[in-house]
Design a protein that fits this description.
By secondary structure, the chain is an all-alpha fold. It contains 2 helices and no strands. Helix 1 runs antiparallel to helix 2.
Length: 72
């Protein structure tokens, strides 16, 4: 597998994780309000989504740094 293919797969993974995080955040908030769940579950859903966003940003930063080093 070439370096470009690996970077492309990592970028695709990060985009899927960000999309899933948005779906979890919005769907969890909607479902929690619909079911009347306690606030602690809302915080749990927020932290799960925040973890997904953090993971995606770290992956994208690593891809960006890798592309910057390829150009040198």
């Amino acid at each position: 597998m070439s370096r470009e293919e690996n970077q492309s797969k990592q970028t695709r993974l990060a985009s899927i994780v960000m999309l899933a995080s948005v779906v979890v955040l919005m769907g969890g908030s909607w479902l929690g309000g619909l079911l009347g769940l306690p606030v602690r579950f809302a915080f749990l859903i927020d932290f799960i989504a925040l973890g997904g966003f953090a993971f995606a940003m770290i992956v994208l930063f690593r891809v960006w740094r890798s592309r910057q080093q390829d150009g040198e």
